[in-house]
Amino acid sequence: MTETSATFKAKSTVKSADLEHRQKINFNIGRYNAVVPQGKSQFSDVHLARERAKNVKWKAIETLDHQLEQFEKNFGKNGGKLIWASNAQEALDEILSICKEKNCKSIVKSKSMVTEEIHLNKFLEKNNIEIVETDLGEYIQQLDNEAPYHIVTPAMHKSKEDVAKLFAEKLGTDPKLTPQQLTLVAREKIREKYVKAEIGITGANFIISDTGSIAVTENEGNARLSSAFPKTHIVIAGIEKIIPSICDLGLFWPLLATYGTGQKITVYNTIISGPKQLNETDGPEEMYVILIDNGRTNILANPKQRESLYCIRCGACLNACPVYKNIGGHAYGATYSGPIGSVITPHLQGLDEYKHLSYASSLCGNCTEVCAVKINLHELLLENRNEAVQTGAVSLGEKIAWKIWKKASLSRRMMNMGNGKIKNWMVNKIFTGWHKQRGELDFSQKTFNEMWKEIHPHK
Fold it and tell me: Domain spanning 43-294: which CATH class is it, in words?
C-alpha cells in the first residue's frame, strides 16, 4: 500500500465517522440541491444543452493544438503575452520572474484551482512575496491554513460559527459576529490589498480561441478587482479550458452557473482580451496568460480518458457523490476531489500513487447523471481500475485474489460447494481487504441455484 493510499484510508475513516462534519456537508449540499432546479428551468431542454456543450468541448479537445495556436495569435494581437508551461515548476519560475521584474512585494489573487494545483501560495511566500486570496471562501481557507475543500465552495465544511471563531482567532473580531458582519470584515481587510498590490492573479473558466480572450465567472467581483487594479495581470489556466468561439459562452455560462451554484447566471461574468488599450481607462498595463500542461497531455493521449478534459469544474459531481458526502474533500489528498478528481488525479500525478482514488466510488453513476457536459465519469473510474491492472500497478497478492474470485464466480460447482460458513470464512478471513473497511458478509446456507433445484427438481 502506498503512503497516499494509507493516508486516504486513515483520513476517510475518521471523517466518515464524524457526524458533525456530515451534518454540515449535508446541510450545504441540501441548499445547493434545493436551488439547482431553478437554474435548470431556464433551459427548454437541459439534456440537449448538456449534449451540445459536450460536443463543443469534444471539438475543442480534438483540435486542441489548432485552438491553442489560434488563441496565442489573437491574444498577441490584443497586446497580451502568452507563456507556455509544461509543468508546475516552469509555471512557478515564470511567475517569479515576472514578480522580480516588477519588483513585486504584494499580490492579490482570485479563486483558481490550477494555482492550488501548482502550490503557488506557498511558493511565493517562500520567496517573501505576500499573496492574498480575495474570494471569501478562499480567504477563509487561507486564514485557516487549509486547502480548498471543494472545487466551487472552498469552505463548504465550515459552519458560520466555525468562521466566526476563526476570524476571532486570526483577526481579533467578536466571535459572535453574523455572516453579514463577517463578510464586511473580510471586505475591509481585502479591499486595502487591491490598491497596494503590484500584480493580480486570476484563473480562467474559459479560454476563447477566436477572440484571444479569457472568461471569468464569479459572484463576488473580486476577480474583476484583482485583474483591474494592479498594473500587471497574470492569468494561469490549464490548456483544456479552451473553447472555440466567444459565441459558446451563451451556452457555457448558464450551464456552469446552474450546475455550479443553482443560479441562472452568476453575478459577474467577465471577458478580458488583453491589457488596457490607449482609449481605455481601466485595466492592467500588462497582461500575461500562462497556459499549463502539468500532465494534461497524458490524459489527451489516452483515447478513453480524454473525455475527462471536457470538465468545466462546476463541482456538481462532488455534490452528488455519496462517497464525497461522507469523507469530504480533504481526505482525497489531491487538488481535485470527488469523482472528477478520482478520474484525473491518477493521470496528473501518477497511477501508482493515486490509483486508489478510482476505487473510492460506489459506481452508482450519479456523477455521470449530473455532469454538466455529460462526461461518463463512472465508466472512466472503471477504466482507471482496468489501466491499473494492465500496467501492473497492483500487487501480486491482489492479482491472485481476484483470479481466485473470478474462477469461483464463474463455476456453478464451486459456488454451490460447502455451506455459508465456508464462504463467510473465505471472504471475512482470507480476503482481509474486504473486512478491514466493511462489515462481515453473511452468506446464505444454500445458494439460489440449490434452492431452485429443491423446488423444481426436474427443471
Answer: alpha beta
